[in-house]
Design a protein that fits this description.
mainly alpha, elongated
C-alpha cells in the first residue's frame, strides 16, 4: 500500500535538464515525480504502449461498449436489434483481422 504523500522536495536544475526529465517522463507516460521517484527507488516504470497495443485497446473497448449495449437490452427484457448484433459481429471481425494482419 502506498503511503500518503505529506511533503515536497524542491530541487534546482537547468532549463535543459528539466526539459530532458519532462520529455523522458512523458515518453514513458508518467509524471516527472513518478519518473524521478522510480529512479531513486531503482524501480522500472511500465513501458509505454506501442501503437499496436493502443489500437488493440481501442478495438477491445469498442467491442466491450457494444456488448454492454446488448446486455442492457437483454436485461430490460427487450430483444436486441439485428443492427446492434451486426455491429458487434463486425467489431469482433475487425479485431480478429487486425490481429491476423499484424502477424503477417
Amino acid at each position: 500500500m502506498e503511503s500518503i504523500k505529506q511533503t515536497q522536495i524542491k530541487i534546482r536544475v537547468s532549463i535543459e535538464k528539466k526539459a530532458e526529465i519532462k520529455a523522458t517522463a512523458e515518453a514513458l507516460n508518467s509524471s516527472m515525480s513518478e519518473f524521478i521517484l522510480a529512479k531513486v527507488d531503482h524501480t522500472e516504470l511500465p513501458r509505454p504502449m506501442s501503437d499496436f497495443e493502443r489500437e488493440q485497446l481501442r478495438l477491445i473497448s469498442e467491442i466491450g461498449n457494444r456488448l454492454n449495449i446488448l446486455v442492457k437490452k437483454v436485461n430490460n427484457n427487450s430483444r436486441p436489434d439485428d443492427v446492434y448484433l451486426q455491429i458487434v459481429i463486425e467489431a469482433v471481425d475487425e479485431f480478429i483481422r487486425y490481429v491476423i494482419n499484424r502477424d503477417q
